[in-house]
Write a structure and sequence with these properties.
single chain; alpha/beta; six-stranded parallel β-sheet; 16 helices; globular
């Protein structure tokens, strides 16, 4: 896979370089109705690639998506707030095109001088971006590719999608991996190729079904699997415990029993919560209490792991040399149920080895809870992409860059 350094060495001064970035940041509506960014982590992660290109004299054209619009413009998904924040972070003007491949985009790109940067409107406002029809997707890719002389794939959070800007455009232009994609793939390869041991994977979040591929691919390769979050209740139920009104995927119980049996046969330790913070309702102010994990009352739901579980999880991380974490331990957005996720993050900061926070809610949690990013070895920008990488899947965006 060619990298950004290769492209810059070839010379980019005066060339139009299309950068597929991941700027899919969370937005909140202010009192006046305007939208503001609540976590700019993904924008900041794009800066090394953009600054390197600008420093080399390129005319940089950035494209990205935000949210899940249905192939047509929706004001709430406009990238205009991102353009404002990107301008602040770069400390230089950012030209914003009000469309993606239309008149505004062409006018903005044509007006770029060396060391200038433009941001196109949301890629997903165009139906061709996400189309499953190769011809429709290819037609949009042709339009997008016509705006540039070279392509840099740097949106790691989207490389698992076979979308026009991710998969088709790099087949139409000279292409390289940006700083972020190169760093992400290097770290994830370290997790799948001879990691230092003990190797511990921590999985949380809502659904077991979202993580079964990772578990299946890593079982027998990892030394220890720590399970928390909503998915823990399906594991507890598979062991025969009552879980009250907690989140439960009943259709996955047999599969989870198989996972437990396979782990035991392969000598992989599975660590489950021993106590739970159980609440009367899914609400920030709900009445709650700590109960044993095998004695959750019928009228209560687990919303976090309890204090004994936090200590257990920290203890099982203490000797680790490699850790991958994806998924919170509880409903961290609610202060009453954030202690488990906070305790896990703190334990990771003390690991003497490589720690990888696998994007998505885990990355959001460490920032929301006030942790410095440098306290962890690597914080991925792509939760879904990192999980699929660890499942052993071929990611379309990486396949395209490697061709």
């Amino acid at each position: 896979m060619r990298t950004l350094d290769d492209l810059i060495a070839d010379g980019v001064a005066g060339r139009r370089v299309l950068v597929r970035a991941d700027l899919n940041v969370p937005l909140a509506q202010d009192a006046d109705g305007s939208l503001s960014i609540t976590d700019d982590g993904r924008i900041r992660a794009s800066l090394p690639t953009l600054e390197a290109l600008l420093g080399a004299g390129a005319r940089v054209v950035v494209c990205a998506h935000l949210g899940r619009p249905k192939g047509a413009p929706e004001p709430r998904y406009s990238l205009s707030p991102v353009a404002v924040r990107l301008e602040e972070l770069l400390g230089r003007p950012v030209s914003f095109a009000s469309d993606t491949v239309g008149e505004s985009a062409r006018s903005v790109v044509d007006g770029l001088e060396n060391c200038d940067l433009a941001l196109l409107e949301n890629l997903r406002f165009e139906p061709g971006e996400t189309s499953k029809d190769d011809a429709e997707r290819g037609a949009f890719a042709d339009q997008l590719a016509s705006l540039a002389d070279a392509y840099v794939g740097d949106g790691f959070g989207a490389v698992h999608r076979k979308h026009a800007s991710v998969y088709d455009v790099p087949q139409r232009l000279p292409h390289v991996a940006g700083r972020l994609v190169a760093a992400e793939t290097e770290v994830l390869r370290r997790l799948t190729q001879d990691p230092e041991r003990p190797y511990v994977v921590v999985l949380g979040g809502a659904k077991v079904s979202d993580k079964l591929g990772v578990i299946a691919n890593l079982l027998g390769f990892v030394d220890r699997l720590v399970i928390g979050g909503g998915m823990a209740y399906t594991f507890l139920a598979a062991q025969g415990h009552e879980v009250g009104t907690s989140l439960l995927e009943a259709d996955q119980l047999d599969t989870v029993r198989g996972v437990l049996e396979s782990a035991a046969a392969q000598g992989v330790e599975i660590v489950l919560p021993v106590d739970i913070v159980a609440a009367t309702a899914f609400a920030a102010d709900a009445e709650h209490a700590v109960v044993a994990a095998d004695a959750i009352p019928a009228d209560r739901m687990g919303l976090d792991v309890g204090p004994a579980s936090r200590e257990l999880f920290a203890e099982r991380l203490r000797d680790a040399r490699t850790v991958f974490w994806n998924g919170p331990m509880g409903v961290f957005e609610m202060p009453a149920f954030a202690a488990g996720t906070r305790a896990l993050a703190e334990a990771l900061t003390r690991v003497d080895g490589l720690t990888v926070v696998g994007g998505g809610d885990s990355a959001a949690a460490v920032r929301l809870l006030g942790f410095e990013e440098k306290a962890f070895g690597h914080i991925s920008t792509g939760g879904g992409a990192s999980l699929e990488f660890l499942e052993g899947k071929q990611l379309p965006g990486l396949v395209a860059l490697d061709s």
